[in-house]
Amino acid sequence: MKALLNPELSFSSISQFHTNKLRNFTHSPNQTSLRFPSKYRIGKGACLVVKAALDSSIMDQLGLSESDIRNPSVSTSYRSSELPKPNQTLLDAQARVCTGPTQTRPLSEEQAFKVFDTILRSAKGELNDEYKVSRAQLGAFFAAMTIRANAFPEATQWSEGEKLAINTFWPLLVRVLPPDIIFIADPEGSIMGLGSSIGPQYVGNCATEMRLVGALREVLAGGHLGYEEVQGILRDVLPLKVDDEESSGVSESLFSAFLIGQRMNRETDRELKAYCLAFDDELGPPPVADVRSLTHYGEPYDGNTRYFRSTLFVAAVRSCYGESCLLHGVEWMPPKGGITEEQMLKFMGANTSLSPLHAKDLLEDEEVGFAYVSQREVHTSLYSLIGVREHIKKRPPVATAEKIQQFVKARGKEAMVAGFYHDGYEEPLLMLMKRRGVHSGLVVKGEEGALSMTTRLRSASISKGFPVNYCSGFRSLSMASAFEVDGVSRQNFNLEVNAMDYGFEPTNTPRTDRSVSKNIELGLAALHGEKGPAYDRIVLNAGLVDHLLGCDGAEDISAALDRAREAIDSGKALKKLLNYIKISHKLS
User: Fold this and answer.
1) CA-wise closest residue to 177 among 168, 165, 185
2) How far is it, in rounded angstroms, from Cα 489 to Cα 478?
3) Residues 32-80: pLDDT tens digits?
4) How far apart are CA 228 and CA 156, in angstroms?
5) Is residue 183 within 8 Å of residue 202, measured between CB atoms?
6) Residue 498, C-beta contacts closer than 8 angstroms, at least 6 positions apart
7) CA distance 52 to 39
């Protein structure tokens, strides 16, 4: 039994709460959830009591070892122990070369020799299982090398050190690597200099692989694919069956090469649409919630590693005045493996295994008004990629597309909000939102590429690219959806949000450094009305999103911000969050 034990949740009335005691959370070594001191009240008339401390006798009875129990205070502890770890030497190299034409950093001679020696020793069976180079890593690495040789500018093509390492090791590698890897490394038999016929003649081992190999020849040459071609491959290959590669119909090396290759070539709009829409029908048509307004939040699935993540608490605030919010994500996702909404909800005792129908019920419930769904429950095909995504190191195209999902629809207006980091992805994200047919869309370059706008001063060292707090979006001027409106009926905008313009004092963003409990502590303290940087960020991100999306009652920014403050100071937002934790268990 390796799963984190679910805490027992109960609510009871007690007489008094002092907000300055909120930081008196305590943790025992084997504790799996927050423990609130019993004399402090969490919100009006309610106390969160978590009974999840495991003593050694209980662990023995359950057959658990200490290694089976996660430390829920650290985001990295949510990584499944069943996932095989990648080889770190190759992973470090992938971080340098499995990226774009201007971001790639060629390997030095010393680095290249170390990498190719590692690949050779692994292929010859000289490395222990825990240090072996995976097929997914080989596919991603050699795809990157091939694309750099075929399509990248001179500055990011092979370095002299890489050329020397290849000339030294390839004659040895070609004897021990499987045909699919040799194909990826030299698809036309012209790159490595030996004139091998394996790459040109390779077709794959089944119909699915034949289709994938044909597409890969185009991708490895730096080319692009059509919408139907990408979507067809995704539907053929997914879900991956990691434990039984033969039954999945495709080798991980080929599919890893496909994923990283499309990202390195910078996906076209039609390719991104294919990733975004490929599995819309996996659970059938989405349910329709009877709410007047619904905002879909697309946070990066791999979470935050440094700064306070505010979206869960923002959703509780906005739900207080009828702006329903649907969040989605995963418990843990590479490459960052940071703090996610699912970790926080699970840590606080909420049910994180809800279906879209459950989410619809929570959205319609006046005591809640927001919901979270896990990719594990709604897109099992894409969820099966987590292990491969760790081994390819860099984010694949699906990392962009998964943020623009619509697991529940609304009878009223719909909006989408998504975070981005790399310049050039703001317009594709907005394009996907319009394709979804929502009335309003917003992309935010928040801290760490997430959605949280900050109140800190802009760094003077920023010299290129969009700054943090850059926003771009559109809003319809009528009830018509994006499908139905033209450019005249839609208002487009872009701006850099300066929090000082709205009366906020500049403050540094609270650090969480992968601590789930610290992120929760900051959010709950703010929802209790404790003024400070976390409080300001929740208010800023609630009020500004309301205004930019054109929500009712938010035409004036000051009024929108005051409405968010009132939702917190009245205790309503905290009550919404606590109600979510309680009611989510009634829906399982």
Assistant:
1) 185
2) 7
3) 444 443 332 333 333 332 323 334 443 344 343 444 344 568 999 999 9
4) 31
5) yes
6) 458, 469
7) 18
